[in-house]
Automatic annotation (TrEMBL):
A Pfam cross-reference name: BES1_N
Family, as annotated: Belongs to the glycosyl hydrolase 14 family.
Residue numbers spanned by region Disordered: 1-48, 63-111, 132-156
Lineage: Eukaryota, Viridiplantae, Streptophyta, Embryophyta, Tracheophyta
Keywords recorded for this protein, A-Z: Carbohydrate metabolism, Glycosidase, Hydrolase, Polysaccharide degradation
Top-tier EC class: hydrolase
Catalyzed reactions per annotation: Hydrolysis of (1->4)-alpha-D-glucosidic linkages in polysaccharides so as to remove successive maltose units from the non-reducing ends of the chains
InterPro entries xref list: BES1_N, GH, Glyco_hydro_14, Glyco_hydro_14B_pln
Polar residues biased stretches: 1-11, 69-79, 94-103, 135-146
Keyword Hydrolase: yes
Biased amino acid composition, Low complexity: 84-93
Residues annotated as domain BES1/BZR1 plant transcription factor N-terminal: 28-58
GO BP: polysaccharide catabolic process; regulation of DNA-templated transcription
Name of the protein in question: Beta-amylase
Length: 628
């Protein structure tokens, strides 16, 4: 529940807005953003209708003749609701329902530390989910408020959530326990649920690490009615020792076990290194023969301004350069995918393999490795541009010369270092060089290389896996999202400042290849980590809905996964809310969801019971147990 000071602040802000929007009142001017106000009004009205419906259904308490509402004593004592109560006859208690002014502004906050008006310059997003009581809990209210920044308006908790009383202008406001308002997903669309297998399920010898243990776990997963499992097919394991010498033995045994349990498979063509990112518990480097080439020619890897190479994945600059024992990087990727398709033809024909996700960069994601922990990056640093290998610099030089400005064939010189903040740089600060002539040229080129890489690799993937759904994974770089420049996104290759939609071009490219978009539920990072998101001006929800809208605008399937492990109901409810948005006018929902990941912790009795419940709700089944 918000404090009295913040409520008074909102009421004062609302009074000023009413003066501004009323002709002849106060300032005597019209509101400068009528479309935004119209959308706010529509979403507030939806919210009121939802609450009213629950009140009329008797789920949120007793309605007094003057229209106010509060929980009856019969509710609080777990007895059947009656038409009246002692509290209902008391005329001395006046209960009011507080508006939720910022609820319709998810992903948009005026609390930005920037001279640029964040709200007025946003050009992105169409659908924002209607706020609802089940979306919040008392355990996360303070975190949700922190996410919105520390200035101006804050996200107010709705008075019908929680279980406490507070006052606004000396009037009581009721807060009801969230368990009464948990959303019912019975009858909602069926969203398939997959479980990601452990990173080291197949060892470096391409053998199953623990076949007996895996067999037991698959049986348990089947009992929970999951649709299937997902697994990384590591380039560094399969083609480890020599070019075009593939060993799929461990994966053959794994796929056979999955098939015997009548589960489906999603596979990842993992062309990146494992072991250098959050959550990695094994080390799987790139193939040995690639490492040998890299020792004599380190420019096959992404390189930062200081000349440090990152062997996590190959530079996109060699996509068409014959520097890999006579093959280009694109040819290497295609040969690997074609070998997989031929080797597992029977599983494709039987429909066991439902999707192939193609690795396009670090962590398998379509992005530059702009935030490498091995080079000292720590959250919430903006990262660094990764375009200083000789091949990408050659590409940049050709582009600058074609533009008629050969002196632009360089990276920004005032963009800071890995752990710099935007306002500390001349490039990313408000009014910085990122929005100048050179800055726009460079960022256009940098992001175009990213889109072209995805386009070329997916062209080969579509050829190799004809008739099978392919997908690409996109990362959620949500820190500094509420600044004008979106610095962390820019260094990662997403040209997404506040006056430009950086994800639309990626969505169009995916649509060209009929590819699905896999985007992680980045909001879970907030639930699982004690991180000060306000200081980083982060906005996981805002980024999530921008990306989802970009994908839905071109009608491509959206898959998703949790960013970090989760076992509690609050986290599961958040996933469900994202997977099946409430009141989406087009009835949009996720195409599939992958839980990260299979582990002994998930198999613990209480955790697995919660997981089973989550699977049922993702499948659209009614769940009778409403206790939290």
């Amino acid at each position: 529940m918000a404090s009295n000071s913040s409520n008074n602040q909102f009421l004062h802000h609302q009074h000023i807005q009413e003066q501004v929007s009323t002709p002849g009142g106060g300032g005597g001017t019209r509101r400068s953003r009528p479309l935004e106000e119209k959308e706010r009004t529509k979403l507030r009205e939806r919210h009121r209708r939802a609450i009213t419906a629950r009140i009329l259904a008797g789920k949120l308490g007793v309605v007094l003749p003057d229209g106010t509402t509060f929980p009856s004593r019969s509710q609080q004592n777990s007895r059947p609701l009656g038409g009246t109560s002692a509290a209902a006859t008391s005329s001395s208690t006046h209960l009011v329902s507080q508006q939720t002014p910022s609820a319709s502004l998810r992903g948009i906050s005026p609390g930005c530390r920037t001279s640029v008006d964040y709200n007025s310059c946003r050009l992105k997003g169409v659908f924002m989910p209607t706020p609802s009581p089940y979306d919040l809990s008392t355990s996360t209210q303070s975190q949700n408020s922190a996410m919105m920044g520390d200035g101006g308006e804050q996200t107010e908790s709705h008075p019908l959530i929680g279980g406490s009383l507070d006052t606004v202008n000396d009037k009581q406001v009721v807060d009801i326990s969230p368990k009464l308002a948990e959303r019912d997903f019975g009858g909602t669309p069926y969203v398939p649920v997959y479980v990601m297998l452990p990173l080291g399920v197949v060892n470096m010898k391409c053998e199953l690490a623990d076949p007996d243990g895996l067999l037991k776990q698959l049986r348990v997963l089947k009992s929970a009615n999951v649709d299937g499992v997902k697994v990384d097919c590591w380039w560094g394991i399969v083609e480890a020792h020599a070019p075009m010498e593939y060993n799929w033995n461990g994966y053959k045994r794994l796929f056979q076990m999955v098939h015997e349990h009548k589960l489906k498979l999603q596979v990842v063509m993992s062309f990146h290194e494992c072991g250098c990112n959050v959550g990695d518990d094994v080390c799987i480097p790139l193939p040995h023969w690639i490492a040998e080439i890299g020792r004599s020619n380190p420019d096959i890897f992404f390189t930062d301004r200081e000349g440090r190479c990152n062997p996590e994945c190959l530079s996109w600059g060699i996509d068409k350069e014959r520097v890999l024992r006579g093959r280009t990087a694109l040819e290497v990727y295609f040969d690997y995918m074609r070998s997989f398709r031929v080797e597992f033809d029977e599983f494709f024909e039987d429909g066991l393999i439902s999707m192939v996700e193609v690795g396009l960069g670090p962590c398998g994601e379509l992005r530059y490795p702009s935030c490498p922990v091995k080079h000292g990056w720590r959250y919430p640093g903006i990262g660094e541009f990764q375009c200083y290998d000789q091949y990408l610099l050659k590409n940049l030089r050709k582009t600058a010369e074609a533009r008629g400005h050969p002196f632009w064939a360089r990276g920004p010189e005032n963009a800071g270092t890995y752990n710099t903040q935007p306002h500390e740089t001349g490039f990313f600060c408000d009014g910085g060089d990122y929005d100048g002539h050179y800055g726009r040229f460079f960022l256009n080129w940098y992001s175009r290389v990213l889109v072209e890489h995805g386009d070329q690799v997916l062209s080969f993937a579509k050829l190799a896996f004809e008739g099978t759904q392919i997908a690409a994974k996109l990362s959620g770089i949500h820190w500094w999202y509420k600044t004008a420049s979106h610095a962390a996104e820019l260094t990662a290759g997403f040209y997404n400042p506040s006056n430009r939609d950086g994800y639309a071009a990626i969505a169009v490219m995916l649509k060209k290849h009929a590819a699905a978009l896999n985007f992680s539920c980045s909001k879970l990072r907030m639930l699982d980590q004690q991180v000060n998101f306000a200081d980083a001006l982060a906005d996981p929800d805002g980024l999530l809905w921008q990306v989802l809208n970009a994908a839905w605008d071109v009608d491509i399937p959206i898959a998703s996964e949790n960013a970090l492990p989760c076992h509690d109901r609050v986290a599961y409810n958040k996933i469900l809310d994202n997977a099946k948005p409430l009141n989406n006018p087009d009835g949009r929902h996720f195409w599939s969801f992958t839980y990260l990941r299979l582990s002994p912790l998930l198999m613990e009795r209480q955790n697995f019971m919660e997981f089973e419940r989550f699977v049922k709700r993702m499948h659209g089944e009614a769940v009778l147990d409403r206790q939290v």
